Amino acid sequence: MSLRTSFLENFMHLKKLELFGFKSFADKTLIHFDRGVTCVVGPNGCGKSNISDSIRWVLGERSAKMLRGSKMEDVIFNGTDFRKPIGMAEVSLTIDNEDRGLPIDYAEVTLTRRLYRSGESEYLINKTVCRLKDIQDLILDTGIGSNSYSMIEQGRIDYILNADPETRRFLIEEAAGISKYKVKKEEALRKLEKTEENILRLNDIIQEVFKNIQYAERQARRAERYKEQFDKLKDLEIRRAFRDRSALESESAQTEERKAASVAAMADVQANKQQCRSELAQLEESLRELNSRLQREEARRYELKALLEQFEQQLKFNEDKRLEYATRTGQLEQEKLELSLRTEKNAREIQQRREEEASVNEELGRADSDTAFAQNELHKIEAALESSKQSLEQVRTETFELASRTAKTRNDLHRHSVFLETSGEQLTKLRQNLERYEQEVRSWRDKFEANAGGLEGLRQKAQTISQDADQLTVQKNEMRAGLEALADEIKNLEGQLHQKGARLGMLHELDVSLGLNIDSICQGHEELEKNLIKGIRDIVRVRPGYEKALEAALGDFSKFLIARNAETAVKLARRLEGENQKLEGLLVCTPLDSAVGDTGFCPLENSSVDCALLSVTEIDPEYAGLLTPFLSGTYVVRYGGPDDIPALLELSKDFTLVTQGGICFSKSRKITLGQGAVRDQSLFQRGNEMESLQNDIAVADAALAERRRSRWELDAAFLAIEDRLTTLQTLRMDTTIANESLESVQTGISERLHSYEREMDLIRFEIKELENQRAESQTQKTLQENELIVLTAAEKSAADKLEAFQHEIQVRDEERGTKLRLVAELESRLLHLRERSHLIAKALELLRETDAQARERLQFIDTETVRIGAKVMDLAGSDETIRGRISTAAQESEQVQVSLSLLGAEKQGLEQKASEKQHWLETLNNREKEIESELHQCEIKSMDLSYRARTLEEKIRQTYHVELAALQASDYPLDAETAEGMDKKIEDLRSRVESLGTVNLLAIEEYDELKKRYDFLTGQKADMEQARESLLEAIRKINRTTKGLFESTFQTVAQTFREYFQTLFQGGDAKLVLIDESQPLESGIDIIVRPPGKKLQSMTLLSGGEKALTAIAMLCALFKVKPSPFCVMDEVDAPLDEANVDRFLKVVRTFLDSSQFILVTHNRKTIAMGDSLYGVTMEEAGVSKLVSVKINQNEKSSLQSVQSEPAAQASDVKDKDESAEDNILTSQSET
Questions:
Q1: Which of 68, 246, 552, 1214 matches a 20 to 30 Å C-alpha distance to 932?
Q2: Would you tell me how many other CB atoms lie within 10 Å of the CB of residue 31?
Q3: Can you give the pLDDT at residue 90?
Q4: What's the average model confidence in pLDDT over 1118-1146?
Q5: Beta-carbon-side half-sphere exposure of residue 1008 (alpha carbons within 13 Å)
């Protein structure tokens, strides 16, 4: 044993396992594993298998089903009837790594996994937060994974035998050590797939960029020509602007003088208006006061009129009241007569009822006296009987109590004796427990105070991080919306560019094929490009609808190009001959400035003639002399069909005629049909369309560049915010995890402290109670010994008294029956008389109430009659008063009418004066309007001049992006030579600039950027292709390596499996075969077995023991090829009989020199093999508790010698447990 242990010192092995809140291990539990064999035993359902589940879980198991649950939260302790659920489960597994079996530079590695009830998980390596993948990579190809052959339970046995061949292959791969190669291969395949996608994407981008480069190159050359003409135009435009601004300033000064004269006249008019308004205001104030007095007098007149009407109404109301009072008085007199008659009748009936009541009461008194006497006699008899019964009951109670007290006293004497004997031992144990709890409380309270400061800091940090993250999230959402909007705009613009570019390219290719494109002809020849000016189509503009007519008139000339001189024409002809390019012809300017011909035209009077062709054609003035001879004398005619041809031929003797459809009638009586490059679109229509498309593309290009620049800037800001937000989220998660972890620790410490304090209070209370109980028990024991003697004598005396009282009760019960019958007869008669008396009294009471109501009503009638008389007198006085008020109001109304007449006359005079003043004020207003009109004209003139000056500056600013006010006129002198024909020169230059169409001035920079991007992308593509080849070579190398490792390992495992099978079965045969030997890297593995004495058969026909032995043979073969540092077996030996257990243990012993074993078992022989023993119990329902035991050699020998009978096994296990308890070295039950 010691030799094996020292040999294992150099091997990686498990050192300890720490559980908290995992399944039934609610309290913190620490398990130390020795090098060798550790056995875990305990009754069914106590939680033994939870230890192997915890090891599997901490090694990365993600299947709740493999952990015997339905969901992962099932591994968290869920509470019991006496405990609350815990919020998290935590398991830590410590591995001795002295031999560096794990690829990490630590001598000891602790793997930790936590799961919170909220669903959050944590993984740690040596208390450092990590990912599950980090743990899986760490234990890869070590044979200690959660699904490797180092974790074996009963379910695993069936899994190995019943799994499909492809799944069974995993075990061989784990033993061969090719798992890491498979991971690398999968990673390489993912990278290869991503690389292929990147190459395809790069090809698409490169093709698109190449197309853009070709177009950008043409645009750049065009932009250079545009800049040269534009700079000349800018210089002349600024000189003209300085001249025009000087003229505007002179005219503005004259306007200001006129404005000043009008302002002075306006001041005089406004002074007169102010005086007139003041006088008019005084008159209006007098009128307002007069109107106010008129209104008051008019209101008083209406008020008096209303008052007179009110008085008349009051007189009428009083008359109606007098009639109402007379009617009411008659009704009251009639009611009073009826009530007097009713009162006399009630008095007679009341007297009769009183006499009847007196007679009944007298008879009731006699019956009541007889009944009371009989009841008194009955009560005396019952009292005597009750007294006897009470005495009898008292004696019985005393007898029972004496018997009970005697028995109780004897029991108490025995109980006190036993209590005094056992309580002494309990008191000693309680005091020891109290001292141990006090030490624990002091230790845990120090830890709690140390953690409190750190927890507060973490909370403040988390709050700050959350606030920053919320602000960044808002910014991120806003930017995402902006990016989406820009993406939509860019997509739309790209679609438009693609559509218009395709159309322009098609037209451009058509021009190239027809030899009309100067850029394609002069490409690479700067001299030709400089002297070959442009095509005929570029210098002619024709009214829409007449394009085909112009093309028909020009004929082949419409496709000619214009050369600056004859030398250029010669060079071009030589070049085209050498390169075999197509060109219709050339027009040569000799010299260009003198090529001026007749630009007029003569009208032709004919009903068929529409117009002269020159009237609908605009020729560049610089080339008018060159083209006018071709078009003069050419007319556009109306063409209705073939019937018009004779007349048109006759007319064409002296002129050239063309139709809008492109038919030409020449002077030589030649008819040309449909001249033009394309029948449905003429050369000039195509030119107009190309110019329009170029303008649209330039505008879209500029907009697209701006949107892309905005997107790049927003993308950069968005990525910066995302990076910052990711950092904050990681920091917040780390802070939250640390905070929750520390809170969980604090909660655990707090719960632990409360638990300890409750336990300590309970222990102190138990000690005090136990001491009091012992003192009281000793006292009670002495008293009860004396009391037992007294109770025995009292029992005999009570029996004699009981017999005497029973005879006395029998006699008195007979007397009571006679008296009861007499009392019943008297009570019946008394009840009848009382009911009759009650009815008489009730009738009498009703009569009295009726009489009282009638008398009360009579009194009310008298009072009401007096009140009505007083009301009638009051009405007479009121009428007299009202008539006096009517007279006074009539006089006052006449006075008010006179006052109204006088005030009306005064008002008419004031209104006449106000009308005169108003007429004068209108005259002044008209004069003021005239002056205002003059001022307004000056203002408009001044504003117009100012606007023209601002417009001039704005035009220069918008066109050339310079401030005219910031320039000096001396820098742009205007001499006579420059001023002469300036406007014509400017228009000529502008025509040249406009003839170039819309030009993208950024085309040169864009071309350079696109060229750099194209070079970069092609380089990236080459790198990607090289990376693809490297990945393919790596995958081929991995396949070769894994194939070699798998084949060699498979052969070794197959041979070793056969050997172990024959060892465990004492014969038979077994082998492993590949399903498809041609595909060793993908083929599944099948198991073929033949137990001794049996034919080859299906695995499903094997017994449970045979299946177990077969699976054990397979696992041992894997262990033999690649030993695992440790192996956990959970009740693997359960289906085996005694003989097979011996063979199984014999095989296990062969691995003890290289591996550590943890065996969960019920078998005594397996237990005897262990170097240390852990017992799992469940003292508290639902909560597992652990006890560890060291087993010495004598106990192991004793266990090994026990027989296999069930009865003997049960007895021996009990003896072994008692012996083990005496040798306990460590006892752990951590909460």
A1: 246
A2: 23
A3: 94
A4: 83
A5: 4
Sign of the Cα torsion 358, 362, 367, 373 reads positive
Backbone phi, psi, residue 1085, to 5° = -125, 135
Give the tokens for residue 209: 């960029």
The whole-angstrom distance between residue 309's C-alpha and the CA centroid of its chain comes to 80
pLDDT score of 229: 78
Token pair belonging to 505? 């390219």
Confidence of residue 1212 (pLDDT cuts 50, 70, 90): very low
Q: How far apart are CA 70 and CA 978, in angstroms?
A: 97
Question: What's the pLDDT tens digit per position in 1158-1198?
Answer: 889 888 888 888 888 888 988 888 888 888 665 554 445 44
CA distances from 767 to 2, 220, 239, 426, 471 (A): 47, 104, 116, 9, 62
Q: Give dist(CA 539, CA 550) in Å, integer.
A: 13
Count of CB atoms situated within 10 Å of the CB of 995:
14
State CA 990 to chain mean position distance.
60
CA distance 651 to 412: 157
Is the pLDDT assigned to residue 823 strictly greater than 90? no
Phi-psi region for residue 923, left (φ > 0), alpha (ψ -120 to 50) or beta?
Answer: alpha
How many whole angstroms separate alpha carbon 759 and alpha carbon 765? 10
Q: Report the pLDDT averaged over residues 252-263.
A: 80
- Beta-bridge partners for 1156: 1126
Tokens of 860: 């009310």
Taking the domains of the chain in order of start, what are their residue ranges? Answer: 1-148+1158-1192, 515-676
User: Which CATH fold would you assign to the domain 515-676?
Assistant: Alpha-Beta Plaits (3.30.70)
- DSSP track, 1149-1189: HTTTTT-EEEEE---HHHHHH-SEEEEEEEEETTEEEEEEE
Which string of DSSP letters, residue by residue, matches 34-61? -SSEEEEE--TTSSSHHHHHHHHHHTT-
Average pLDDT over residues 595-601: 46
CA distance 489 to 498: 14
pLDDT on residue 73: 87
For residue 5, name the pLDDT band (cuts at 50, 70, 90): very low
Q: Rounded mean pLDDT of 1200-1220?
A: 37
DSSP state letter for 1130: E
What does 160-224 look like in DSSP terms, one character per residue?
HHHS-HHHHHHHHHHHHT-HHHHHHHHHHHHHHHHHHHHHHHHHHHHHHHHHHHHHHHHHHHHHH
What's residue 512's pLDDT? 59
d(CA 823, CA 368): 11
* Integer Cα distance of 347 and 81 in angstroms: 85
How confident is the model at residue 682, as a pLDDT?
A: 61
Assigned CATH topology for domain 1-148+1158-1192: Rossmann fold (3.40.50)
**DSSP conformation letters of 513-575:** HTT--HHHHHTT-HHHHHHEEEEHHHHEEE-TT-HHHHHHHHGGGGG-EEESSHHHHHHHHHH
Question: CB of 312 within 8 A of CB of 879?
Answer: no
**Average confidence (pLDDT) over 1116-1135:** 82
**372 phi, psi to nearest 5 deg:** -65, -35
Instruction: State residue 34's pLDDT score.
Output: 83
Coil, helix or strand for 22?
A: strand
Cα separation of 571 and 566, whole Å?
9
The verdict on whether omega for the bond into residue 591 sits within 30 degrees of 0, i.e. cis, is yes
User: Measuring CA to CA, which residue among 816, 571, 701, 797 is closest to residue 216?
Assistant: 701
* Residue pLDDT, tens place only, 68-85: 888 888 899 988 888 888
* Overall average pLDDT of the 520-544 stretch: 61
DSSP state of 1010: H
